[in-house]
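Before we proceed, please read the two lines closing this message. Report back on whether the structure tokens fit the sequence:
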Amino acid sequence: MCIKLVHRICARYGVGMKRPVRLDSRQLRVLAHPLRSRLLSALRLDGPATATKLAAAMESNTGATSYHLRQLAAVGLVTEEAGQGQGRERWWRAAHDEHGWESRDVADDPDDRAAATWLTEYQVRTFAELIAEWTRDHYSHPPAWRDAAEVSDYGLTLPPDRLRALNDELHAVIDRYQREATGEGEQVLVFFAGFPRLPR
């Protein structure tokens, strides 16, 4: 299984080529934390910010956001933004546009598996909340956006190699749209998952 994350987890925005990172064990374990995941997501989605600004957005406190930003920086997931800030004020930015890992990267270590499982479940919960929020609120948006947005699901019968090919094709489509982005419009979220149905 390949996991690619951007949002409070992983989606990416902006114009230009992506800067991905394949998480190592230290990065995976550091990121498997609610506030750290939210901080990294906010820096990717909204751009550079100070610990104070992030604390206000997340209803946290500056001490907590500063500490967790330093933890993310220690493993190379965020970095200080040079040339911004005055005095002791520090601005932070995401070091990459997206992160990911393969199941085989974590299969042999129980702690890595636990961190990867937490991050994936956190992604699913986050997107479920965002989809529900859009569903409740979408009638307040212009018709063009209501008509463009979609929530769909499918059931297919496929062998593993065909499922891998399907997921790779979907990633390629997203990558093409990202490369062709002009900066016009609004941020949009795209989430997909392809996996075997488990017996219930």
Observations:
- Confidence is low (pLDDT under 50) at residues 4-17.
- The CA atoms of residues 25 and 128 lie 27 Å apart.
